[in-house]
Design goal:
Structural class: alpha/beta
Order of helices and strands: EEEHEEHEHHHEHEHEEHH
CATH topology: Rossmann fold
CATH architecture: 3-Layer(aba) Sandwich
Largest sheet: 6 strands, mixed
Strand content: 25-35%
Length: 246
């Protein structure tokens, strides 16, 4: 089943076309990496697919729901961890998770709802090994812990699609590898759309990879397919070859 389908998806600003007639399909359970230099249109694409920005033209569906006609339905299906690590600095880890759980489960009331929220938080804390920092304020956490919390918050609503926009940006090697393990464990349980500047990250994690340049996807395929088309080995060399052609 297709998790995402776009047809001619476009975003224009006054003097720039950020995303240009994007045609894309992503399967349910796939980890799809979207690569490109700064300004290629990756984040703008994510913003349209999560209903944070309105397309200028074209269409996009998330599990059959149109992003323009059914934004509330789409928002229920997606979670997003942004590159600026959007956590509430003065709240503890537990309070951040409780707040987000309350947002996603706002329609549920009573003791059963409270237990459901509590159970969901405890499951997420266990999944991300957050117990040792659960009562610490977010502002006291290291970059690695904040990234883990940000992704945990994105998952608290049990989305069918998780958008990870530069999830390991600025992390040291050990913190990055720890997050890789978490993302690897999430594969097949949830559809993941990953943007990253770390070529080894996309190479290690992605089922398919797309290269975006000036708002257009110029290549897409598995690692093996991209290596075969370019005659290069390793994603960094593949990316440089593709970028050089375009």
């Amino acid at each position: 089943m297709n998790a995402i389908i776009t047809e001619g998806l476009t975003k224009r600003y006054k003097d720039k076309t950020a995303v240009d007639s994007l045609n894309l399909s992503i399967d349910e359970g796939e980890l799809f990496a979207l690569l490109g230099v700064n300004g290629a249109g990756k984040t703008t694409t994510i913003r349209m697919l999560t209903c944070l920005s309105t397309p200028s033209a074209g269409h996009a569906k998330v599990f059959g729901h149109d992003v323009m006609a059914e934004p509330d339905e789409v928002k229920r299906l997606v979670g997003i961890s942004t590159q600026d690590t959007a956590v509430a600095e003065n709240l503890t880890v537990y309070e951040n998770l409780k707040f987000m759980a309350g947002v996603y489960m706002s329609e549920e009331k009573g003791k059963e709802a409270e237990k459901s929220i509590s159970d969901r938080i405890e499951n997420i804390i266990k999944m991300f090994n957050l117990d040792e920092v659960r009562n610490k304020k977010a502002k006291t956490l290291s970059g690695g812990w904040k990234r883990k919390l940000s992704i945990a918050m994105a998952l608290i609503g049990e989305p069918k699609i998780l958008f990870l926009d530069e999830p390991t940006l600025g992390l040291d090697v050990l913190a990055r590898r720890e997050l890789w393990k978490i993302i690897e464990d999430l594969k097949s349980k949830v559809t993941i759309i990953l943007t990253t500047h770390y070529m080894e990250e996309a190479e290690a994690l992605a089922d398919r990879i797309a290269v975006m340049i000036s708002g257009k996807i110029v290549e897409i395929g598995t690692m093996d397919e991209l290596e075969e088309r370019t005659g290069k080995k390793g994603l960094e060399e593949v990316f440089v070859e593709i970028a050089g052609r375009n």
